[in-house]
Design a protein that fits this description.
The protein has about 200 residues and is an alpha+beta fold. The protein has six helices and five strands; from the N terminus they run αβαββββαααα.
Amino acid sequence: MGCQKAIAGQIVEGGGDYCLAVKDNQPTLHRAVQVELDDMIRDGFVGVRHDHQQTVGGDHGRIETRDVGTADQLDWFKQVDDWPGLCSIVAVESKSEMSGDSTSVERRYYITSRPAEAADLATWIRGHWGIEIRLHDVLDVGFKADQARHRHGHSAENFARLRRTGLHLFQREKTRKRGINGERLNAAWDHDYLLNILSG
């Protein structure tokens, strides 16, 4: 997203901090951060100021090991001035081992305006993913978001906004205690209830 730099600037100007996932939608940034962090990890962060945290947890027959590595030496990063307040880069490697000997490893990368303190950044990143996962689950179960096939023009973004608006309206409505699916059915059957939801 091209607007992320502007958003980062607004956050820093407002006195806040950001921790942004580096993804393929910004290929130059993603490649630069990925290559540098992968090299640092491979070399054991030799000669680089860094911090590291490893946590192990799991449930339902799955063991997850999360390694968080951070560094704040950014002299190699040509785009550093494009990102207001940029202080550190982060790599999070998640290794999931299932009972049955299947193992999956995933590494994700982040840029942040926070100091390179692995425990702090691990908490930030985990909290963000928890929110994303809960929101995704509600949108998928209640609004079938994963089954949506909007591809033309801005339709995918427009319908995503409508689903989130609908979710917000249902969450604000407190007179009936049902799940999102039940509340949607009630709104379809009961026009007074629908008007109550829409009027807040």
